[in-house]
Amino acid sequence: MPFSKDFLWGTAECAGQNEGGFNEGGKGLTTLDVMTLGTKEVKRKITEGILENEIYPSRKGSDFYHQYKEDIELLAGMHIKAFRMSIAWSRIFPNGDDAEPNEEGLKFYEDIFQRLRQHQIEPIVTMSHFDIPLGLKKYGFWGGRETVGLFENMHVQFCFVTRAW
Fold this sequence. Notes:
With 165 residues, this protein is mainly alpha-helical. Helix content is 33%, strand content 8%. It has one domain (10-28, 59-161). The chain has 5 helices and 3 strands; from the N terminus they run βααβααβα. Strands 1-2-3 form a 3-stranded parallel sheet, covered by helices on one side. The longest helix has 17 residues, at 145-161.
């Protein structure tokens, strides 16, 4: 049985796992940026910052931050119709509770959306994919009620401030 013509043949990514550029473009640190490498015997841990003798495997990812133009070209070449992507909250609000959004972060995502549109690829956006700004530790991360309001602010700022929609 063939797929219907409106079937969204697509692919997906998670900003925290593949974006890279963890310390570029005004992005703040996240829990994933400071999560150490683990093994079967040694559990991963979240450190207070970047420690010299630890390995942080998620900071580089597949380097989508630097290679998204080429990656989108590859998707178009495969006739992908949809791209499920997540937004790095800390790229929009580096500390999670900043008063104003990071313009470099907004520009990064605007450019991605424009390129996807140029190739008739529909973005399917996840506003949070488990990664959270490290600066929200003071609220208890998702355990603090303040975080919910800050997430709502990030969502509104991103959706209505960016010109990509």
